[in-house]
Amino acid sequence: MAELWDVLSEHFSEFSSGFWVTIRLVAISFAIAMVVGTLVAALRVAPVKPLNWIGGVFVETFRNTPLLVLLFISFAGLRRAGIPIDAWVAATASLGLYTAAYVAEALRSGVFAVGKGQIEASLSLGLDYPRTLRYVVLPQAFRTVIPHLGSLTIAMIKNSAIVGVSLLALGDLLHQARLVNSRTFATDEVFFWAAVGYLILTGLATVAVRLLEARYAIRR
Amino acid sequence: MKWTRALQLLATLALVLGVLLAAGCGDDDDDDGGGGNGGEPAGEARQFPADTPLGKIQRNGEITIGVKYDVPPFGFLNPQTDEVEGFDVDLGRFIAEELGVKPKFIEAISDNRIPFLERGTVDLILSTMTINAERDTEIDFSEPYYIAEGRILVPKGSDIKGLQDLNGKSVCTALGSTYEETIRERAPDADLRLVDTYSECLELLQNEAIDAISTDDVILTGMIIQDDSLQMVGDRLTVEPYGVGIKEGDKQMKRFVDQVLTQMEEDGRWEETYQKWVGRHLDRQEQPPEMTLQEALQIGA
């Protein structure tokens, strides 16, 4: 038991720096995922066929590729092609766009949950399609899919650990934990604390989703 | 006319098939020959009591050895045969042969090899592992079987000429390797990039995401074999005596491995294996190491 606390106190700077890198990674990727996810969902439900296709290609590309492969292509691949992409950009773009594909699908299902009559009513009142989406459909769609978006956010927090084992060598929580492990060989203790770090983040996300749900979700 | 054609076609097919089969058999023969008869347990191997670690391995008929899969010329996967080869692998085969069992090789990267030993996933580790005092508290080491030197690898034309130029540059090495500490101490302002495998370091250097790689000269030699736009610079940073990793406290295994090592150093197998994997590329001759385990442990201290 004593050893458990020793590992944390002796290597606190490594763990905390890893924790902050993970938070930054997750925060930026979350913003990208929500913004891009919403735009792609809008493309997917737009009444124009080519726009549907573009949205569909995006979703299938990013959802059907393993995250580790995306990270490799976006970093090593682009650099080999002569584009000097930064490890942070590659990491947040990969994690953000990967999650965006899921967010887009979640929102699309939320859009379908909004009654067709409402859309027709809105259009007949003279609102154009983008405004119908903005004022009538999306606010309701978001409310319906809050629990689903919460699960996606938690999955994204856990997926961020893949960045730490990839060749990007960003010092996130898992990367730092493995670094401490390579110096102390205290495997059980080190990964216990790494798990605690991720649990704090996913726990916070869970609480945030509960609060949002309590406030906005549609009661049935 | 038609029939002659058909016959000719058949004959050609038979010929092609025959050649393919012969080639296939030839490959197998090569494998067995190169592997020091790894497949056939030697009849004259010494038997150990069944309740000892070595006796258990003999009863299973198989010894599991952790090796590198991406570090030519010590342990690397041959894409043609899909089998792992190299200096470490040959050493593993010799040990298995002396024990009269089959060797089973699994991949052990720098970061997981010590837990592998502790948890019994492997019986031995032969993965370019440097003997040092820190690791010696977790596992046991054989006598040194190879002495490597630490060097720096850069693209030709780089302005890095040695250790003194590394500050402010990004340097890649494997997470859990001895170089993590060496670079941190001797070039404290270098931006250390730690990845799982040296092949990832090579990828990063080739796509200009980092400025240099630092690790053992033999590993860097393997990289230069793959990409001759790279070169080693500077004086040697460290002396890296490689040892076989043995589970902590397994005295019987340590005695046995040390005996096999001494034997192969005496009967010329060491030099033969060295020439086959390393000497050929470095264009130099080498004698088996004379350094003892005690001396090796004192290097870092």
Q: Can you describe this structure?
A:
The complex is a heterodimer of chains A (about 220) and B (about 300). Chain A has about 220 residues and is mostly helical. Chain A has one domain (about 1-215): MetI-like (MetI-like fold, Orthogonal Bundle), CATH 1.10.3720. Chain A contains 9 helices and no strands. The longest helix of chain A is centred in the C-terminal third of the chain and has 37 residues, at about 130-165. Chain A starts with a helix and ends with a helix. In chain A, about 40% of the residues are buried. Chain B has helices at about 1-35, 55-60, 85-100, 115-120, 135, 180-185, 200-205, 215-225, 250-265, 270-280, 295-300; strands spanning about 60-65, 70, 75-80, 85, 100-105, 125, 140, 145-155, 170-175, 190-195, 210-215, 230-235, 240, 245. In chain B, strands 8, 9, 10, 11, 12 and 13 form a 6-stranded mixed β-sheet that branches. Chain B has a 5-stranded mixed β-sheet with strand order 5-1-6-14-7. In chain B, β2 and β3 form a beta hairpin. Chain B has 2 domains: about 45-145 and about 245-295, 3-Layer(aba) Sandwich (D-Maltodextrin-Binding Protein, domain 2); about 150-240, 3-Layer(aba) Sandwich (D-Maltodextrin-Binding Protein, domain 2), CATH 3.40.190. Mean pLDDT of chain B is about 85; it is low at about 25-40. Chain B is α/β, with parallel strands linked by helices and about 300 residues long. The interface between A and B is medium-sized, with 17 and 22 residues.
